[in-house]
Specification:
single chain; about 230 residues; alpha/beta; Rossmann fold; five-stranded parallel sheet; two-stranded antiparallel ribbon; about 45% helix; phosphoglycolate phosphatase activity; HAD hydrolase-like protein; HAD-like_sf
Length: about 230
């Protein structure tokens, strides 16, 4: 019986993209508008649609129903166009594969994602490093599901409940991410939060944001599993 839902953030938690994300958003903007971007994307835990909407506004383009409909296709196409570059310049973060493997071996754990990426891009990014096989993408929460990242936890919980016939709530949901926005999404959305200091924010900043636990990274597999289990007990 699957009784514990683990929701992974992707960028800077499981993988490092080394700036490819910014190139993806610049390409998506060009696909969407037909012109090159003049301002770099601001990411920091935002959803991909939010990032691209902000880019439109900064370039004096009012988001409307037409460009919002085409936005998801532009994001998907841009990510696919940078797939080879992502594989070349990016890498899986130390300990990520071992942590995913250890959790996959537990019969009571479901692993999915809680990501600002739209679903196709979540699959593409993890596939670049052969990490997709550990994830049940059907029960994830994605940037294309809701404009508010905090709401994605409930989206994932509902999907997991429907698929597995187990009620998922805060007591049996753990979110793992690297930003204060991840911490906020978990706290406000109804999940325990483990923060990893593998992104731009320090362990102290993540603790101050309200993470239940903070780890320096994912290298210590036993510590990762122990942290998840202790929060779900």
């Amino acid at each position: 019986m699957c009784t514990l839902l683990v929701l992974w953030d992707i960028d800077h938690t499981l993988i490092e993209n080394h700036g490819v994300n910014k190139e993806i958003y610049a390409q998506a903007f060009e696909f969407l508008t037909g012109r090159p971007t003049q301002h770099r994307a601001r990411t920091e835990g935002r959803t991909e649609p939010e990032i691209l909407r902000n880019m439109l506004i900064e370039h004096g383009i009012e988001p409307n129903s037409d460009n919002m409909i085409r936005m998801l296709e532009a994001l998907d196409s841009a990510t696919l166009s940078k797939f080879a570059i992502l594989r070349e310049r990016g890498h899986e973060l130390p300990g990520a594969r071992d942590a995913l493997t250890a959790l996959q071996s537990a019969s009571d754990i479901i692993q999915s994602v809680l990501s600002g990426n739209i679903k196709p891009n979540a699959v593409t990014k993890l596939s670049a490093f052969a990490l997709e096989r550990f994830i049940d993408f059907e029960v994830g929460g994605y940037g294309s599901d809701d404009n508010v990242r905090d709401n994605l936890v409930a989206v994932a919980q509902e999907r997991a409940t429907v698929k597995y016939g187990v009620e998922f709530e805060k007591s049996n949901t753990v979110l793992i991410g690297d930003t204060s926005r991840d911490v906020q999404a978990g706290r406000n959305g109804g999940a325990h939060v483990i923060a990893v200091a593998t992104g731009s924010e320090s362990a102290e900043e993540l603790q101050a944001a309200g993470a239940d636990m903070v780890l320096p990274d994912l290298r210590d597999t036993q510590a990762v599993v122990k942290a998840i289990r202790s929060l779900a007990d």
